[in-house]
Amino acid sequence: MTINILENEQVAKTEILKFCENFEKVRNETAKFIVGQQDVVEKVLISIICGGHVLIEGVPGLGKTALVNTLAKAMNIEFKRVQFTPDLLPADILGTNILVEKNGEKIFQFQKGPVFTNILLADEINRATPKTQSALLQTMQEKCVTVADHTYQLPKPFFVLATQNPIEMDGTYSLPEAQLDRFFFKLNVSFPSHDELSSILDRTTGLSSPEIKNVIHGEDILAMGDLAKQIPIDDTVKHIIVNLVRMTHPDSEGAPEVVKKYVRYGASPRAAQSILGAARVNALISGRFHVSKDDVKAVAKDALHHRILLSFEGEAEKISTKEIVSHIFESI
Amino acid sequence: MKTTMNNEIKNVLRLSQNQINLSVLLRSVFVGVIISCSICLVANIYFIVQGYAAQTYLYFINLGLFVLLATIHFLIYFVNMPKTAVIVDKAYNLKEGLLSHIGFQNKGLEAGVFKLQEDKLIADLSDVRGKSLFVMPHKNLIWLSVMLLTSMCLVGFMPESERVASKKKQEEQMLKITAKNIEELNKALEELEKELTDEEKELLKKSKIIQAVKEIEENKNKEEAFSDLAKLEQELRKELRSDEFQANLATLKNLEEEALKFEETKELGEDLKKKDFKKAAEDIKKFELDEKLLKDLQEELKNKKELSKEEMKELKEKLANKVSSQAKNMKALNKSVKKSLSKENANGKEGVAGELGELSEELSEIEGDLDKLADISKMERLSKEELEELMKNCENCQNCSADCKSKLGKLGKSLKKMGVQKGYMDKLFNMKEKLNMAQMAVATESIMSGGKKPGEGVDRNLTGQKDSLKDNNQFTQIKGQKGEGAGLVSIEDAASGTGVSRVQGKATKVEFKAQAESFMNREDIPDDLKGGVKNYFNSIHNIDDTKKE
Fold first, then answer.
1. Contact B114 A6 (CB under 8 A)
2. Which residues in chain A have Cβ-Cβ distances shorter than 8 Å to B117?
3. Is residue B122 within 8 angstroms of chain A, CB to CB?
4. Strands, E assignment, chain A
5. CA end-to-end span of chain A, whole Å?
6. pLDDT surpassing 90 at residue A276
7. Per-domain residue ranges for chain A?
8. Is B123 on the interface with A (CB under 8 A)?
9. At the topology level of CATH, where does A231-332 sit?
10. Which fold has domain A10-205+215-230?
11. Residue-wise pLDDT tens digits, B75-91
12. In chain B, which residues have their Cβ closer than 8 Å to the Cβ of A7?
């Protein structure tokens, strides 16, 4: 049941406090095992609260799987991992009907695939064929699976964390624009610093590894998502989000020169939804009860950059979409 | 639904608005000072470079400009409540808290999370209480404005150059002269009105001069007065160049030349020469035939078949003394008129020329009869037929005399009219001269007297450029009238041929050559040098000659 925080001050205060506590608990618990990467952890958490999916880009061995594993443990939710390979079929992910004998009768029974979980780690998603990649489309957007005229609802919360390796591009299939747009955030996992790497060594090469406790439950995450949706936003800030997304389109009025020159197609309205949702959570974890420009700025880059398609000139000149987003933000 | 804003937030907003606007006002003052002083300084430096002292009126303009600019600046940057909220948000790092709060308030959202938002805002604002949003203008702005203000004040003490001072003095003098000339013009106009006879006044009324004069009197503006003076001058010139008057003058000039050749018409000729047309009209009357004499003669001869010797003697005397003298006068007049008319084609002409033509016809007619009457004086006796002929002649003469009298009278009237016109023209000419003087004086105020005034453009004389006399189609350039009589410049004819005599120059050249040769032939000069110098000069002359060829 959704708790309304717009009417009662005390309820609002309690719920928001609880939200912040839960967020902090998960963050702290994750930090026990994941060294550094606070920004990535925070963004993944925001994305989970908002019901979005995250595409993480980074070289192997940076702790992507460990991050998801830790988060799942801390949030006490089910976690499954699928290694995407070129021979992986949609049925391998979604599940399929198999013939089983029940009470002497042979019937088709739906065998659930690994997608029926709370957190699905789609490792190296770009290695699978487009057919398999698109099998995730319905599940990511509608959070349900349809097999043989039968639709199966996925458990709540459902969160896809896909990874892709930016170096090894041989035998990979770039994610189609439609699928990229379904990712709430695209995050880059950077290589750890000297101290961070040293801490990683300390924590992972010893006899004992840190124990991750269940600090919240799946229901709490859903409640946190509902609460975040009620955080108010002033029209001025809302206009900033609208303008920000509109400015990514080279044909829009007042688009910066850099967009006109280097962008082929801008972000979809889904980007604006992602920014607003993420900004609301960001406002709450920043201790505010309204969305500010800073909240928008904090999440806009990760929500927009994978949704902007560069033109030939942009590709040729190796323009970064993040730079374009920064430029647009400055021009507003 | 709009809700009431929390008093604490409201107070902070008001206080902040006042502080920000005070900062804006102070900045406006300095910005106004910088811009207005810069303009004033540049203008004054320009005048100083031209040689003038700094202009006091520019300081007043500067003051006005400063007030205007400062006001404009203040109005542009004046902050209202929403703008203040944005500034306060930014200044106190409220992360759009105040702006959002105002937005929620305007929508009537104040419960639940909105109340929490308000409480947080109040708490944030209480943290920054005591901090002022008043900002002093940048020190560079202050320094610049102080420097400009000081410079402008210093420039005000710089004196004008001697050249400009002397020209100003000249200008003042010229202004005095101008005022005097304009006064004289007014006086001339008054005199003109007083001096004119009724007939002249009639002529004056017909022209547009009165209207032009009235316009000048009404005008206070110098430029318009100048324009009106030019208009008046045009009107005067138009009147003075009246075609009819000029044609009549030309005809009378011819008559004057011819009349001076005969003893009988010399008086008339001289009066015409003096342009005393009124007296000439009187002179013309003298040429009228004595009708009484002819009538008496006719009475005497009436009913007489033959004249006695005594009667014949008396008649001869009368004819010889009176009739022949009148015939002589008329002949001389007729000759003068005919010759003068022969100089121009009088056919179909109007005015004096036409009248002279008609008079000439009448005179020719009467001349024959008078000759016949005069011839009788040479006869010893008169037969009956001759007597009848004489009577007939007398009758004819009497008849012609009336016509001739009327023609002479008409000519006399024309001459009188010409006299009136001449007087009128003379007065107009006199007025035109005064008008020209006034016009010149008004013109010299801006062109000749000490250059242009500050702010009225560049004085080209000071920049070394010559002023070209341009016709601006507004003011008529004054042209000289071709006068009569000998000119001031006389050129003496050479001994032979025409042109300027060069005798003096040649003599000087010969004298100089002799001197040069005497120097060259001095004993103390070596022979080779004598020859060298001579050859040198000869060679120069040869070169010159070749060039000429």
1. yes
2. 232, 288-290
3. no
4. 53-57, 79-83, 95-102, 105-112, 119-123, 144-147, 150-153, 159-164, 183-188, 263-265, 309-310
5. 39
6. yes
7. 10-205+215-230, 231-332
8. no
9. Helicase, Ruva Protein; domain 3 (1.10.8)
10. Rossmann fold (3.40.50)
11. 999 998 888 888 888 88
12. 111-112
